[in-house]
């Protein structure tokens, strides 16, 4: 555990050591605002909840989260510090976990900074704060799944742009599986069970309950499963690179 | 002597390219092993395998009896490693970087302060402790990397070109530090600087095209040089030609190299293999009435051995 903590601390500090973090946080918040108030028609809905806010998270994260995860491994390979990192007496699994948790913590911090919107709904009306809390939790959990995918993609390359593009592409698959445009293609010629299996692969499907304030075991297992699977993939990629050089 | 590190049959292929082709190496306590070879000979790749960063295609290496080539992270705690070019986290200050390294080596927080400060003072980093690593000069960067490699008192130190980028004073300082540390551990350094081998190493290994082509103490390697037992005479320019032609007739002389030094000429008389010409030259010099400014016998030259073993077309 202390190994994970050592890596986590360094990684998290590293985010704030460059202006990139502050630029990123600004863009994150501006985008959240744009999506919530313009596309989500926050005021037009005249409802004291954060449904308009959470509804766009899966799409918003598609670009914002791979931007956080792209540097995780690619930067280490580019600068050569990977050699320093992987010759420390720390197991690869702990490095993968520590780096990942730091990215999650940074994302959580970005989410916390959206608190004015929560204050706004509480000021304008009387929302169910339990639902909002679950929404935030679900959003972070989903972001965690995006980050795990992004981490694996970052481990594949020394180029952060490539890591970003790979991350966006793969995350898009996980989002698009639940979109009507994809499901409509299969409708009519695929059995309903297969259709629901495809839809079940999607972040959208599993996030929809959470954003409404419903915590179900299936959604938890799904997100945790996706996270563990991609962290395991990250570890595998890092270890394979050790073999291949 | 106690064996600290042992490598057997290390091979590394990158695709079809064989970077390392069967390296056997043993490092004992108290040894400073100089790892020499031209660029691309496989020095860095071998070092990466010895530290566990790269897995060998075949073969294995142990450090203090523990396999390191399988990616066993516990074995890595016995190693201090300065990778080529000393890559460091540029966004950290020197102190925070060294604190991170201490923590990564499992050094308890109470001890870490003391250990970081003493490692930093060993390589004179006191003035840059609060400076960001990316703003440091090449020499300082190398020294931060060195401090990080030695702070946990590892049994084996693997340093890839530790004095590269340092000024002559710093080089001297780092060599002294390496020598002092070698007493109770084993050290491998890779270097291009052959004087460093003479000044520092108890043993030298020359590697070419992924294979070891020579292994011995610096004096054993020098014996392989054409200049081993060569006689150097510094004589007056006007007498040089006469002396050279007289010496050339001495049995066992293979070649004479002449270098002009103003009023004097330096004649280096090379002997044929396994022939001792020192006495014969001494005799003829004593009998003739030559004005000899200097008479010396060479032990051999490492650069000559290095060139002969690593230059394919002969040297």
Structural summary, described in words:
- The complex is a heterodimer of chains A (245) and B (315).
- Chain A has 245 residues and is mainly α.
- Chain A has one domain.
- Chain A is built from 15 helices and no strands.
- The longest helix of chain A has 28 residues, at 217-244.
- The radius of gyration of chain A is 19 Å and the shape is globular.
- With 315 residues, chain B is an alpha/beta fold.
- Chain B has helices at residues 43-50, 94-104, 109-122, 138-150, 168-181, 194-200, 218-223, 237-248, 278-287, 302-310; strands at residues 3-14, 17-28, 32-36, 58-63, 66-67, 79-82, 156-160, 186-190, 203-208, 211-216, 231-236, 253-261, 264-271, 292-297.
- In chain B, strand 7, helix 5 and strand 8 form a beta-alpha-beta unit.
- In chain B, helix 2 (94-104) packs across helix 3 (109-122).
- The model of chain B has no long low-confidence stretch (mean pLDDT 89).
- The A-B interface holds A 2-3, 6-7, 9-10, 13-14, 17-18, 79-81, 83-84, 86-92, 239, 242-243, 245 and B 12, 14, 45, 48, 51-55, 71, 73-74, 76-77, 79, 81, 83, 85, 87-92, 96, 100-101, 103-106, 148.
CATH architecture of the largest domain in chain B: 3-Layer(aba) Sandwich
Strand-and-helix sequence of chain A, N→C? HHHHHHHHHHHHHHH
CATH topology of the largest domain in chain B: Rossmann fold
Mean pLDDT of chain A: 89
Provide the spatial order of strands within the biggest beta sheet of chain B.
Answer: 6-7-8-3-9-10
Which structural class do the helices and strands of chain A define? Answer: mainly alpha
Q: Give helix % range of chain B.
A: 25-40%
Rough outline of chain B:
elongated
Tally the structural domains of chain A. 1
Sketch the major β-sheet of chain B: 6 strands, mixed
